[in-house]
Specification:
Layout (H helix, E strand, L loop, with lengths): L3 H9 L13 E8 L11 H6 L1 H13 L2 E8 L4 H8 L5 E5 H11 L7 E10 L5 E5 L15 E4 L4 H12 L9 E4 L2 H10 L4 E5 L2 H7 L4 E5 L7 E8 H6 L1 H20 L1 H12 L3 H8 L6 E2 L5 H16 L8 H4 L3 H4 L13 E5 L6 E3 L2 H11 L3 E7 L6 E3 L4 E4 L3 E4 L2 H9 L5 E3 L1 H7 L1
Parallel strand pairs: 1-2, 1-3, 6-7, 6-8
Antiparallel strand pairs: 3-10, 4-10, 4-11, 5-8, 5-9, 12-13, 12-14, 14-15, 16-17, 16-18
Helix pairs in contact: 3-10, 4-5, 10-11, 11-12
């Protein structure tokens, strides 16, 4: 895999330079985004669907007398967005933490091709946005069981980074001990369903989508690393210098989308689902008020610190060369705007009953189970927090441990570890957990 990184990334970064920008009266902004990467919806899918950017630019045009045109380009991962930014063909792009660092490293090699990190989109402070899943019938019960197996991943992606890092922590070398297959997320998902690969290491929303559909089960939760994972927005420095008002309008529009999502999480989830084809229940798992993603544009110090910690790892596997992080992070444009604080409600779980336009919350795992059991209603989805990591997951896909109460775990290895250290505790299936609550 180390040998594959430089060649693959160089191949992605080829192309002629045709910069977008302005004529005397028409200014074009090309936005690269990942529609199905729902951690970036406030800078992509939801932003586009709501028309916030176009409205902000229309208002800007009334002040400047210019016409602003938005060109949206949808990609499956961050790597091709970086390639197009290096070629001068994308002005603003959103991507995950590992792709952000690769973007910074590659563009710093090209003089006026440099980029700047101007905002975050969403984050999970423990790293639960990246996961490894296997087929439901897989004999694998932990990462060590993947030794000698084929793992589909998108090399250079945040999901790939988590997979490699997690494997290394349990003594599995990603070069020698497994076969890493570089595939787009959708291709990898198809390969997993077809049995062409043994596991899939990816980012949101692919693990949740596959597990919800009964096509995979969760083997490894990135939250076990306890390292923040997040996505952010980068702009071409040359474009930002020439068009600072456009960058400001984009950030204002991102704030509009963030405020809408946080105020109307169910409506936002349904809208994103309708545009992407993802299951609404999966979108809400990530984008709900207690979902896996916290949407906040602020460039928090702990997020920047996480990037700094990622740099040595990326260097060790050949992902980047030189990188000056201080010249890449630019909080200036966002600092001119009013960024509201994000307040998240606290509950242990939620249930979305069929026919309802809102969820019912529960303060404890057992209270959630009783609410479901006693309602007599059909359930669209039920969500519960992992007892160890706090990762929100599907209640019926969790591993429930009974013994002095009921505790949910999103991966089997966690549940078994708890049982082994608590005499008398045992793993029970979901129907049994409902009955015992």
């Amino acid at each position: 895999m180390r040998r594959a990184w430089p060649a693959l990334l160089l191949a992605l970064l080829t192309g002629c330079s045709v910069a977008s920008g302005a004529t005397s009266s028409v200014v074009t902004v090309v936005v690269g985004y990942q529609s199905k990467t729902i951690n970036t919806v406030t800078a992509g899918t939801l932003l586009r669907a709501q028309g916030y950017l176009e409205r902000r630019l229309s208002a800007l045009g009334k002040r400047t007398g210019k016409t602003y045109r938005v060109e949206w380009q949808d990609y499956s991962t961050g790597a091709p967005i970086t390639a197009q930014m290096v070629a001068g063909k994308i002005d603003i792009g959103s991507m995950g933490d590992f792709p952000l660092l690769i973007n910074a490293s590659r563009t710093q090699e090209f003089g006026d091709g440099r980029t700047e990190l101007v905002s975050a989109t969403g984050y999970n402070l423990r790293g639960a946005l990246n996961m490894v899943v296997v087929p439901p019938s897989s004999p694998a019960h932990s990462l060590t069981d993947l030794r000698g197996k084929r793992i589909s991943t998108s090399i250079g992606s945040a999901g790939n980074g988590t997979t490699v890092r997690a494997l290394s922590l349990v003594g599995v070398d990603s070069d020698r001990d497994v076969q890493m297959i570089n595939q787009d997320p959708a291709v990898g998902a198809s390969a997993l369903r077809a049995g062409a690969v043994d596991a899939l290491g990816q980012f949101v929303a692919w693990p949740g989508q596959l597990v919800f559909a009964g096509q995979a089960r969760l083997l490894y939760d990135g939250a076990a690393l306890n390292l923040p994972t997040w996505h952010g927005v980068v702009v071409r420095q040359k474009y930002a210098t020439a068009n600072p008002d456009v960058v400001k309008a984009f950030l204002q529009a991102q704030l509009d989308a963030t405020a809408y999502l946080n105020a109307h999480p169910m409506e936002a989830a349904l809208k994103v689902a309708s545009v992407t084809g993802l299951a609404p229940e999966v979108v809400y798992l990530y984008n709900g008020p207690n979902g896996l993603v916290t949407f906040d544009p602020a460039l928090r110090p702990d997020l920047i610190s996480a990037l700094q910690k990622d740099i040595p790892f990326l260097r060790s596997i050949g992902g980047i060369k030189g990188l000056d992080l201080s010249s890449f992070v630019d909080g200036g444009p966002l600092a001119t705007l009013s960024v509201p604080a994000v307040h998240r409600p606290v509950n242990a779980g939620e249930v979305w009953f069929a026919g309802s336009a809102a969820t019912v919350t529960a303060p404890t795992p057992e209270a959630l189970l009783r609410t479901i059991r006693d309602s007599g209603k059909k359930v669209r989805a039920a969500y519960i927090d992992d007892a160890d990591t706090g990762t929100r997951w599907f209640a019926d896909k969790s591993y429930w441990v009974y013994g002095n109460g009921l505790r949910p775990f999103d991966v089997e290895a966690e549940a078994r570890a708890y049982v082994s250290s608590h005499p008398g505790a045992r793993i029970v299936d979901y129907p049994t957990a409902l009955r015992l609550a």
